[in-house]
Design goal:
The complex is a heterodimer of chains A (156) and B (247). Chain A has helices at residues 3-29, 31-34, 40-44, 131-148, and strands spanning 54-60, 66-67, 73-79, 84-90, 102-109, 115-123. Chain A has 156 residues and is α+β, with helices and mostly antiparallel strands. The termini of chain A are far apart. Chain B has one domain (21-246): Four Helix Bundle (Hemerythrin (Met), subunit A) (Up-down Bundle), CATH 1.20.120. Chain B starts with a helix and ends with a helix.
């Protein structure tokens, strides 16, 4: 290769590597701010600030959704299968909100460790499947539970 | 091999090759894209959770995929411009930047339209969405910088450096959903694993991605041809081409 081109190529490579390191360190330093939400483990470990507007995310715990019959108030628990946080929300939930589905809630953590949300967003995963397949999977997993004697409570 | 590389540097040679390739790229692109989209929108099964609203994936994923790979292609061309001073590489960057901008905008727009019924919001400042918005601004910056500098050679170098600086954003977009907590779900297509959906969903998706690639190839050739004619307007072959027609 021509020496001048070699020199230019080296400069370009240095530019790229230097930039990569700079951006890498910056994003590493800002990782807590880049994370969209705190997960239940962080919240129960006291990492999330109290009475500051934050987001909390995780799975809606099975069987934890309680709806107030007279208002739009809903209470549910958000879990990451390690810790869980009670969430209170008044308003209309997104269509995808369901037990066992992911959510991201925005709101404040109160003194008692309850998360008072003013916005609840539904999160979905990349596992798209036809309804028939989902039904079949559910049936299969229910059959297993019957066979192994309700193992469901153990996993929480 | 080196001879091919040098030929590639010749605008006239590329002009001819592009003219021969374009009908195939156009026909293949339209065919694959139509097949993928019609199959995806009308015949693929609906999702168990999202119902029919997930079908926007057949437009969202191809545009987002292309938006990123067009930028990577531009970065490769930028290295070629900086190191080898090849004119065609600069023509490529200049010609495809607006296409990339439109693709990025479309992916952001379809993403917002998809987000409203599924997540419950048009926009959220999570890592994936924000880094994609930065990509949109990068494309805008590349176009603006190119327009701002009158001298062709200095414009080419400045634009190349900007494109290279921006390329660090591409791995951030790609891995944002794995490195940080985001509202956006993980990638649909991964290089190492099978997609986590049945074949009747991912095959049409793959078809539309490939179709859009071919269509992009056609558009890139067309825009590059125009740019070449503009830049080489004083040369003999362009005068002949314009006056006599093809040949």
């Amino acid at each position: 290769m021509h020496p001048i081109r070699k020199k230019r190529l080296t400069i370009v490579l240095f530019l790229l590597v230097g930039l990569g390191i700079a951006v890498g360190l910056t994003t590493y330093a800002l990782r807590q701010n880049i994370n969209l939400f705190y997960d239940p483990t962080q919240i129960s470990a006291g990492e999330a600030p109290v009475d500051v507007r934050i987001r909390a995310g995780g799975m809606v715990e099975e069987g934890s959704v309680l709806r107030d019959p007279d208002s739009l108030m809903v209470e549910f628990k958000v879990t990451d299968f390690n810790a869980s946080v009670p969430v209170q929300y008044t308003g209309i939930l997104p269509d995808l909100f369901a037990e066992g589905q992911g959510v991201v809630a925005m709101g404040r953590l109160d003194q008692n460790g309850r998360f008072v949300a003013d916005q609840v967003l539904a999160k979905h995963d990349e596992n798209y499947m036809p309804p028939e397949v989902a039904d079949a999977l559910e049936k299969a997993s229910k059959g297993q539970h019957k066979a192994s004697g309700s193992a469901e409570t153990v996993s929480y | 091999m080196w001879q091919f590389f040098h030929k590639l540097g010749s605008p006239k040679w590329f002009f001819g090759i592009a003219a021969r390739l374009m009908p195939w790229l156009l026909a293949g692109g339209i065919l694959l894209l139509m097949a993928g989209i019609v199959w995806g929108l009308a015949f693929a099964p609906k999702d168990y959770l999202q119902g029919n609203s997930y079908r926007i994936i057949f437009i969202h994923v191809p545009t987002a995929f292309l938006a990123q790979s067009v930028y990577v292609m531009m970065a490769v061309a930028a290295v070629v411009t900086l190191v080898w001073r090849m004119k065609l590489a600069d023509v490529f960057v200049k010609s495809v930047a607006p296409v990339g901008l439109v693709l990025t905008f479309l992916s952001l727009f379809t993403g917002a339209v998809w987000g409203k019924p599924t997540w419950g919001t048009w926009w959220v400042w999570d890592a994936r969405l924000t880094s994609m918005l930065i990509l949109l601004f990068l494309y805008g910056g590349v176009i603006a910088l190119d327009r701002a500098i009158n001298d062709e050679k200095s414009a080419a170098r400045a634009v190349s450096v900007l494109v290279l600086v921006g390329v660090v954003n591409i791995p951030i977009i790609q891995y944002s959903v794995e490195w940080w907590n985001t509202l956006h779900q993980p990638s649909t297509f991964k290089l190492t694993e099978k997609p986590s959906m049945p074949a009747e969903m991912w095959v049409p998706l793959l078809l539309s991605v490939l179709g859009l690639y071919l269509l992009f190839g056609w558009l890139a050739c067309l825009r590059m041809q125009t740019e070449i004619l503009l830049r080489e307007q004083r040369t003999r072959w362009v005068k002949d081409y314009v006056l006599v027609g093809r040949g």
